[in-house]
Structures are given as structure tokens and as C-alpha cells.
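Ligand-bound model needed. GNR.
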Amino acid sequence: MSLKEIITVPDPLLRKISEPVERVDKELLTLLDDMLETMYDAPGIGLAAIQVAVPRRVLVMDIARKEEPKKPFCLINPKIVRVSQEMSIHDEGCLSIPEHYAEVERPASVTVSYIDRDGNEQERDFNELLSRVVQHEIDHLDGKQFIDYISKLKRDRIVRKLKKEARRANSVIL
Ligand code: GNR
Ligand code: NI
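Prediction:
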């Protein structure tokens, strides 16, 4: 297992539409393990493959608290097949948009079809925080980020700050 580097805005890779996985093989299972390790290390409660620069439709999640046993989810080729009419507003953050948060309105619950790490087709309802995270991660697979839901003014301000930080980080190395 190994830690992967998490890419951040404005890396253009984050806008890429990820490709479906064709088979669940050893290489994919290693990617999933590396993603889980990277997510726990960050720490975060979700991670999409594109955030570690792999344009494949896979995501991992775990919303268990530090003191609770781990409860990892690995979803391959996830697809939202049903959304609730009820909506919910919640503060979101993103490991690829460090230190910025915004309220986002999304369906309160969703039903997602996916392939699990044993290669079996699954369909599952997600509510509350897991619903929030699974929608956030599936957005990443389509090149979308939570800042796409906020005003252009707020989005531009966040992107400008992150660009400035990226320049600063680069010049420290150079
Ligand atoms: O760690 C994360 N927390 C979070 C909080 C509210 C809504 C979504 C998330 S996902 C985020 C990790 C991440 O960036 N996943 O893509
Ligand atoms: Ni994110």
C-alpha cells in the first residue's frame, strides 16, 4: 500500500470525465487500497480516483469517527439511479480545495448502482452524510466540484486564492 498525492484546484485533471472500469483486477484493488490509505491519512471521508490523478470511475468513502471501527465503502462505476424529492443543505469541503467550505443543496437521499470490490453488482440507498459524500464523489468522476454550485463571485475568489498558493508553493521549490 502507498500514499498518493492529492491534486488540487486549479489542476485541469480535476475537470476530466473519468472512464468506466472494465474489470476488477489486482491493479484496481491496489488502487482502491491506496485511495483508502490516502483518504484516512488526509484525513477525509471520501476520495475519488481523479483526486489522485487516476481518471477511472471509482470512489472510496468512510464516515466512521476516529474512535469507531473503520467502515470503508468502495464503489466502482457508481451511478445515481434515484434521487429523493426532499433536498438538504450542508456545508461541504474538498481535499482538492483545501481550507474552503460552502453550503451546497443536494437531494437528501440517493440510490446508487455500482460494482463492489468483489466484482458484484450492487444497488444501495444512501442517506444523510453518506448521501452527501457519495454525490460529491460522483461529481468528481464527471469533472465537477462543489464550487460549481456556488456563485461565480465566490468561486472565482476561491480559485484565485488557490492559484496564488500554487504559485507560492512552486516558487518555494524553485
Ligand atoms: O473529506 C471530505 N469531507 C466532506 C464533507 C462534506 C461533504 C463532502 C465531503 S468529501 C471530502 C473529501 C473529498 O474531497 N472528497 O472528494
Ligand atoms: Ni472532493
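The CA atoms of residues 36 and 60 lie 6 Å apart.
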